[in-house]
User: Fold these one by one.
Assistant:
Number 1:
Amino acid sequence: MRLNRDVYVGIFLLLICAVFINATFEIKAPLFGQMSSALWPRIILVSLTLLSILFLIRSLRLEKPEWEQKGSLKNWFRYYKNPIYCFGLFFLFLASLPYLGMLLAGVTFVFLMLSMLGGWAPKKLLLHASVAILFVGMMWSIFTFVLGVILPQGEIFLYM
């Protein structure tokens, strides 16, 4: 067992989860008979806590990460290239929301993410496009029509 950076991050994540779970007890109960307003935050926080515990256990069992063994910045980027791509694409998704709207930006984000992580073969591109259109379209429809959530429309659809 080695106390590396991931162990400290795991402990920090557990502390943050504990603070947030404690904060859910301060959420006021609704005046009319319905489920507690703290239910969904607690469900999410319990799952985050379980994932943080799993991360901590895994990091306690882990020896040196591969990029630490070699010790160069190039190896660090090679080791973490997928998360870097994910954060970069997510930033582009957030930046494109005012212009493309939730539907187009979401489909584009999911398609590019699947293609970046899964490969650019023509057969895979068709699968990635169909998954992106189907699932983002379903989620957009559920939030828009069933739940009545107002999602970013984007400038493209603003004048239609």
Note: The chain has two domains: 5-70, 75-158.
Number 2:
Amino acid sequence: MKKFIRLCAACFMLCSALIVQSSAVDIDFDITSEQKAILEEAEQYAYLDPDTASPELREKILDARSTIIFSQSWVADGYTGCIQDVRTGEILEVLPTFSELFPDWDMPIADIVPDSDSTYIEPPINPSEAAEITPLADTSSWKRINEYSTYINAATSSTATPFTTLTVNPYSMGTSVRMYATELTSSQTCNLGISNADTGANYATAVNLDPYEAIIAYNLRYTKIALRASTYSTPGWGNIALDGASRIADLR
């Protein structure tokens, strides 16, 4: 059922982006009436033209777009990602790219965390030698990196404050990261996101995930990432796990 709901939501956003005014935002039944009203109000502004709007209206349009953008699941252009059932290994959804859902829209920038990681590791090879790096079969399985206890706040129109940051080391951690809730004390579902802690670029985001439904982002390496969580249901404490996979080795 959830796979069907996600598919419907993705199809809706693709269609609505082609017209100036959409008919209705596809809203999950788990969210509160207040949050449903916020999304419905955002719809009234999001499809207006910000280039011809007054400064005040332009700000409303961009805020409305941000609200709608982060109410959907997607991966940044140039990357791949999916939603997986951790317990079964089943891929529940291959994430659409940002531009597929929101053509001609600018991706919002997350907050920069300048002191996110004091142990940045320089790549040991030059880009021209990248072909000499090959995935190792015995290191491709998922490995637990950490599990974080964090308070999960209600979702807003902007990205949530990161609850942790770390550098993706492809040798010790891997080039793929998997993030999911192992326990939610009050929330029925959670929204999870991964961004670049230094630039604010968003890599991937997923909404309305049950415990052990993971967002996976592939092809990350030597990047300081920021992890965030929010919810469209009841705020509360939760445990968020981070796994790594597809570790590589220099075979020169």
Note: The helical segments are 2-16, 33-46, 55-69, 98-101.
Number 3:
Amino acid sequence: MKIFGIVIKIVAALAAIAGIAFVVVKYGDQIVAWFKKTFGGLFCCCDGDCCECCEEEVAAEEEAPVEEIVEEVAEEGAVVAAEADFEG
């Protein structure tokens, strides 16, 4: 009976580790994004645009809308899919 209890504890520990691994794999990107959004300012080494974390924020703000990107690609002569192509 003592061995059975030890085996159950080991199985429970392995299940807990597997559960944590699943959560990290499934929701890791969302956890990192939340952490950066919540605590990002605490770990930034500067007040300006001198470091990588500040450059990423500026780049995200300056992204072009999707319509402009599609127009640029269409002007270059590339094949662009229309909405009708995806209707079933």
Note: The radius of gyration is 24 Å.
